[in-house]
């Protein structure tokens, strides 16, 4: 190795919430850190771009981000099949800028196989996370609850096989007495990268490098991170590398690093989108309200979570973007939006159907296989529909729509803690046989019960930051 090369102690990849939460804890004991965080603004694409289809079905929160999504696929050399709807965004904050703002407090169920020390550390970090942003919701000894709309208060709780569950929302709990979601400030109270950065990291010594990572190489104990800004290539050298570039890119970098060309299964939660019509108006002031209710089966094998939110302008806009002929009905749709209930039903990750394969020229192919899950969706949808009907919450009408594999936005489980073989990490989230490479995003978990995974991902990133400095 050239002696003049600048050696970085800890180099972090990515600026999504997993990386930012890591940085916040890391900088409590260390003075400075360097981060590779692309924020590139290329606007030219050839017409054959394989990812045109993905920008046509952007979720409401991501409308207008076409270029960032295309940059993600083009610069990361990802070839996305038409039968697959995986999202990504190459920008400061990544997908964390657009999350639906709900966290599952049920974090312990998916980490049962870990040592009690690790479970304790993750639980402590989870509580710290909720407290530091003063998030609204309930989790064991964290009782910072919010008041949901009583539209969904239910009767005869005990007789049903389904139950409503408390959850945590990604908004600051700024309210003292009433604590209604409707009263938060939708821009400044949100737990998103920009607000998190401004609150905790703005005054810290962080050197952001506006590059994307193309490759990782090892030279003895030193890691070389080969980057590009689209024009110029540059290598960074680090003693320890912390990867938080989101499961898809992280997995691609590791597959390439380990020279693994076999097919890898990406875990996710297939999502059914449903529209119900409520028997009375469910009012709200927000332009995009996080869901107020989670419905889960009490037990059973086909685990799922259904969430519910009242109609809002953003969702109506996105429906019209998708079904252009509805544009003339926009005023009518907006008038009736408070009678609409939108729901996501997220299935157990055992129904995953997304595959990754590293091919020649370092291209990552992402595809789905011919697999039918209509019956599972039909079964869960009937359960939810009959339950809501029995509770007299909705009219006897529903529209179900499956937007495709990957359109659930939850990608994880490729490098699991305690997994088998080279594609796994230990409990400190160090890559097997590579102790100076840490993985801090969703790659390391398999979320089966937890259908809103960001809370556990962030608690874990926080825990790794504490361990890395000890
Ligand atoms: C519309 C939507 C709604 C969602 N709702 C929820 C929800 O309600 N609850 C929940 O728990 N989860 C939700 N999610 C999922 C959640 O947003 C993700 O799990 C989370 O953002 C992952 O965070 P991350 O930091 O690991 O990755 P990301 O936020 O994706 O960050 C990845 C970072 O890596 C960078 N990057 C990418 N490629 C490279 C490269 N080659 N080199 C360097 N850097 C790179 C990106 O620019 C970005 O900074 C939702 C996602 C979407 C899109």
Question: How many separate structural domains?
Answer: 2
Unreliable residue stretches: none
The radius of gyration computed from the alpha-carbon positions, rounded to a whole number of angstroms, is 22 Å
User: What hetero molecules are in the model?
Assistant: flavin-adenine dinucleotide
| Average pLDDT rating | 90
What does this structure look like?
This protein has 470 residues and is of the alpha+beta class. The chain folds into two domains: 1-133 and 193-269 and 354-368 and 409-470, FAD/NAD(P)-binding domain (3-Layer(bba) Sandwich); 145-190 and 270-347 and 373-403, no CATH class. It contains ten helices and 22 strands. Strands 1, 2, 9, 10, 11, 12, 21 and 22 form an eight-stranded mixed sheet that branches. β21 (430-431) and β22 (434-439) form a beta hairpin. The structure holds flavin-adenine dinucleotide. Flavin-adenine dinucleotide binds at residues 13-19, 36-38, 59, 61-62, 76, 87, 90-91, 93-96, 98-103, 212-213, 244-246, 249, 409-410, 441-442, 452-454, 457. Flavin-adenine dinucleotide (FAD) binds next to α1, β4, β10 and α10.
Give short descriptive properties of this protein:
binds flavin-adenine dinucleotide; 470 residues; FAD/NAD(P)-binding domain; globular; six-stranded antiparallel beta sheet; alpha+beta; 26% strand
